[in-house]
Amino acid sequence: MSVWLQITDTAGAVLVFLGAAICLLGVVGMLKLPDVLSRSHAATKPQTLGLLLVLAGVALRLRGGMDFATLALIGFFQLMTSPVASHLVARSAYRTGQIERGELLFDDLDAQLTEPGQETGERPESDSGPERG
Question: Is the model's pLDDT at 118 over the cut of 60?
Answer without folding.
Answer: no
